């Protein structure tokens, strides 16, 4: 079981609300990622970070923002949620070494009404 | 250049059969090719991975076959079990950079 945690697991909110999805890992990994995934479908990279104070946008355009103030914490914020943001959000972190492994959290299933 | 193609989109196999999922890539800089398994309601988890210095890697019932000249790699699941029913993603990475994932294959193993 990977030591990467996401909260909340499920969230139902109304349009226009500001939300923050939390992600924490206890493995000391420098690289962290956020993916957007409709259940069982393709993974879309929306943000990544290679270390503290480093954040980049991914391949899929997203209206969300991220921050990386501490190594273990990589929250994602939506300033004004819309129904089009309804999806599953997966957080991940990557170790170094020859056997590179991207560890995924359990995901947050977001529904915007 | 960054895309990883994966087929089939879905696969149905009888218990005890062999499941085969194929992936192809274009970027010759890719040097690491993992396969991930995802069950409903869970995040993906690393299943097995290979580097291009070998043509095959086996871990239990799972085998990756790698063809560097064709830029293709495949996952073989021997003696498939109902518990193997999940979505499988191939991926590729260059020099430890961001993973590029395939679109996924939904495997159903019938009892």
Task: Give your account of this protein's structure.
The complex is a heterodimer of chains A (113) and B (111). In chain A, 0% of the residues lie in helices and 49% in strands. Chain A is mainly beta and 113 residues long. Chain A has one domain: Immunoglobulins (Immunoglobulin-like), CATH 2.60.40. The mean pLDDT of chain A is 92. Chain B has 111 residues and is an all-beta fold. Chain B has a single domain, classed as Immunoglobulins (Immunoglobulin-like, Sandwich), CATH 2.60.40.10. Chain B contains no helices and 11 strands. The mean pLDDT of chain B is 94. Chains A and B meet through strand 9 and strand 10 of A and strand 4, strand 5 and strand 9 of B.
Return the string of H and E elements of chain B: EEEEEEEEEEE
Task: Determine Rg of chain A (CA atoms, Å).
Answer: 13 Å
The assigned CATH architecture of chain B is Sandwich
Report the portion of residues of chain A in β strands.
over 45%
Helix/strand-derived class of chain B? mainly beta
Termini distance of chain A?
Answer: 33 Å
Q: Give the uncertain stretches of chain B in residue-range form.
A: none
Defining traits:
heterodimer, A: 113 residues, mainly beta, Immunoglobulin-like, 7-stranded mixed β-sheet, 4-stranded antiparallel β-sheet, 0% helix, globular, B: 111 residues, 6-stranded mixed β-sheet, 5-stranded antiparallel β-sheet, 11 strands, 53% strand
Summary of the model, kept short:
With 113 residues, chain A is mainly β. Chain A is built from no helices and eleven strands. In chain A, the strands form two sheets. In chain A, strands 2, 4, 5, 6, 9, 10 and 11 form a seven-stranded mixed β-sheet that branches. In chain A, strands 1-3-8-7 form a four-stranded antiparallel β-sheet, with no helix packed on it.
């Amino acid at each position: 079981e990977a030591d990467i945690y996401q909260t909340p697991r499920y969230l139902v909110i109304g349009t226009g609300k500001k939300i923050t999805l939390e992600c924490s890992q206890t493995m000391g990994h420098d690289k962290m990622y956020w993916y957007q995934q409709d259940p069982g479908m393709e993974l879309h990279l929306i943000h990544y970070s290679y270390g503290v104070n480093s954040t980049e946008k991914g391949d899929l355009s997203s209206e969300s923002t991220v921050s990386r103030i501490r190594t273990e914490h990589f929250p994602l914020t939506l300033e004004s949620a819309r129904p089009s943001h309804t999806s599953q959000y997966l957080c991940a972190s990557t170790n170094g070494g020859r056997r590179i492994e991207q560890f995924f959290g359990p995901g947050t299933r977001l529904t915007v009404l | 250049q960054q895309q990883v193609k994966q087929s089939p989109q879905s696969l149905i196999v009888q218990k005890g059969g062999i499941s085969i999922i194929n992936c192809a890539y274009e970027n010759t800089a890719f040097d690491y090719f993992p396969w991930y398994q995802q069950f409903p309601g869970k995040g993906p988890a690393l299943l097995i991975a290979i580097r291009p210095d070998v043509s095959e890697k086996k871990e239990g019932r799972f085998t990756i076959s790698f063809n560097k000249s064709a830029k293709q790699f495949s996952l073989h699941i021997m003696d498939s079990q109902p518990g193997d029913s999940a979505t499988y993603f191939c991926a590729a990475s260059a020099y430890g950079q961001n993973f590029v994932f395939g679109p996924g294959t939904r495997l159903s193993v019938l009892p």
